[in-house]
Design brief:
Blueprint: H1 7-21, H2 28-39, E1 47-52, E2 58-63, H3 74-85, E3 94-100, H4 103-110, H5 113-133, E4 143-151, E5 157-166, E6 168-170, E7 177-179, H6 188-208, H7 224-231, E8 241-244, H8 250-260, E9 271-275, E10 278-284, E11 294-299, H9 301-309, E12 320-324, H10 331-341, H11 358-361, E13 371-377, E14 392-394
Parallel strand pairs: 2-14
Antiparallel strand pairs: 1-2, 1-13, 3-5, 3-8, 4-5, 4-12, 6-7, 9-10, 10-11
Length: 397
């Protein structure tokens, strides 16, 4: 069922004027995202026609853009990704650790996304792997899944990493599974201090290698001494690292991942209205508690689009990464070893996920029968079958 108001409506209504006003100032990636969202599940991308075997009802299904920043395309992408992760879950407690950045660093990241986001991944993962390996703490080799989010609830620039970590790991010789204490993973204060040092050291190296750019009020930071002076206070403050309570079990881990791995800056479900005053949407003010936390915000359409586009990731940048035991090169062997030590069987292969097209996803809206594909039409074309269609959207293969 189509939402009453979608992100695509904002882009279709105000996108052309926004592109014209900022001609030459938008990246190719941002322009591609705008075009993809505007065209998603419209005749511009083609589609197919289906007919019910039982009542002969006809409907057209338009293809999706499959862009990773499109709110309408992430549901199916998340299902495919989760399908691949189900067999990798271990029968242990899982923890959720979040690494954030001070506002001063987020400002630097704004014009250096690829470099700073990569440093964020490396500093957070190295922090967890190092402290977990220390015999004063866990003394084990752990694995983790890290997911990058770049936004706050009000679409502001707020880069942070969510890490999903099993509560234990392999001993150095690989002969034992070492579990953490019940309800406790690693000391947050120790994590915070190492994370701060690792991040700032890597950032300093990036500056020395000329990999950072500075504009406007931050232009003086191009000078090495000015940059060092700007970082000095950050070495003395606490960086926010927090661990949430452990998940209730593997199923709750999957439920969480399904909400977080393929999330975009804002979903259509949070939109309230689009009118002359701008775009009104719901957001959470995390500084408040109770009913005061849930608020509404109205932005001009241009500001809404600007905030949405600052979360477009650099081309080819991976926002879901695996480290330690879960690193791609050795994941299968490490998981097999962990299951042996935990005395649990390897789960059977999960059933093949259903195809994402409408013939498998949607029964007939009239009688519930099977919808069968009868025609495919190309991008920009219209179906040859003559009827008044019930339009639905599908992911194009």
């Amino acid at each position: 069922m189509r939402s009453a108001l979608e992100i695509a409506d904002v882009f279709r209504t105000h996108g052309p004027a926004y592109r014209q006003a900022l001609a030459g100032h938008l990246s190719l990636g941002q322009l591609k995202v705008m075009s993809a969202i505007e065209a998603c599940r419209t005749a511009e991308l083609g589609g197919h026609v289906e007919r019910c075997d039982d009542c002969a009802h006809l409907q057209v299904a338009y293809n999706s853009c499959r862009n990773r920043h499109c709110p309408k395309c992430q549901g199916a992408a998340a299902k495919r990704w989760l399908h691949a992760r189900e067999a990798e879950l271990l029968p242990v407690a899982y923890f959720h650790v979040v690494f954030t950045l001070p506002a001063q660093i987020a400002d630097i990241a704004f014009h250096n996304r690829a470099v700073v986001y990569d440093i964020l991944f490396k500093a957070a993962s190295e922090t967890l792997l190092t402290i977990a390996k220390d015999t004063k703490h866990l003394g084990a080799r752990i694995g983790l899944i890290a997911v990058l989010h770049t936004w706050g609830s009000a679409l502001t620039h707020h880069p942070h990493i969510h890490c999903i970590v099993p509560g234990g790991g392999l001993s150095a010789d690989g002969m034992r599974w070492i579990a953490c204490r019940k309800g406790f993973f690693l000391p947050v204060r120790v994590l915070s201090r190492l994370y701060r040092r690792l991040f700032l050291d890597r950032l300093k190296t990036a500056h020395a290698e000329g990999r950072l750019m500075f504009f406007g009020e931050h232009a003086p930071l191009a000078d090495a001494s000015a940059f060092a002076a700007a970082l000095a206070p950050l070495r003395r403050i606490d960086w926010v690292v927090y661990a949430k309570p452990p998940f209730a079990g593997p199923k709750s881990v999957l439920a969480y991942l399904s909400r977080y791995t393929h999330r975009v800056a804002i979903s259509s479900s949070r939109l309230i209205s689009l009118d002359r005053s701008g775009v009104t949407f719901r957001y959470k003010d995390y500084r408040r508690q109770g009913g005061e936390r849930h608020k509404r915000m109205t932005l001009s359409a241009a500001e809404f689009i600007r905030r949405f586009l600052i979360h477009v990731l650099p081309q080819g940048f991976h926002r879901i990464r695996h480290f330690g035991l879960f690193a791609n090169t050795s994941r299968a062997a490490n998981l097999a070893r962990a299951r042996t030590l935990l005395a649990c069987a390897t789960p059977p292969p999960a059933p093949v996920a259903a195809n994402d097209d409408a013939t498998d996803a949607f029964p007939c809206p009239c009688c519930g029968g099977r919808m069968r594909l009868i025609e495919v039409f190309e991008r920009g074309a219209r179906p040859r079958t003559s009827f008044t269609p019930r339009i639905v959207g599908v992911d194009s293969s």
